[in-house]
Design a protein that fits this description.
six-stranded antiparallel sheet; alpha+beta; 18% helix; P-30 Protein; globular
């Protein structure tokens, strides 16, 4: 029996943090942040990600959703027990990577994360 290490989680966790950790991101910084972090949607016609959500919290507060701070939803998904402040960046029509332009909106909601052995590796959605 092979014991799975956490090494295979680390790149997925890092990608999750790159795409969604945004304690200091505001709704006017979508274009700059998405470009700086090189967030794209490979395999799409324009290369721009339709929607990207930044969670305005530190990584420890987010990670806890995969444990005692979240409620299991099945399929390795966990819904946060508390609301999180978010900035949701929505793609404006017609752009192509690297000139993707976004409109940002602030909100506060529960978040649903995909977790692997206690580590967040996927942002599923925000729930009002």
């Amino acid at each position: 029996m092979k014991i799975k290490s956490n090494y295979d989680i680390k790149p997925r966790y890092k990608k999750f943090l790159n795409q969604h950790l945004g304690p200091h991101v505001n709704e006017h910084a979508c274009d700059r942040e998405i470009r700086k972090r090189d967030i794209t949607a490979p395999g799409t016609a324009n290369g721009c990600k339709e929607v990207n959500t930044f969670i305005q919290a530190n990584k420890n507060d987010i990670k806890v959703v995969c444990g005692k701070g979240g409620t299991p939803q099945g399929n390795n998904l966990f819904k946060s027990n508390q609301h999180f402040p978010l900035v949701t960046c929505k793609l404006q029509s017609g752009q192509r990577h690297p000139n993707c332009q976004y409109r940002g909106k602030k909100s506060t909601r529960y978040i649903v994360l995909g977790c692997d052995r206690g580590w967040p590796v996927h942002y599923e959605e925000g729930i009002i």
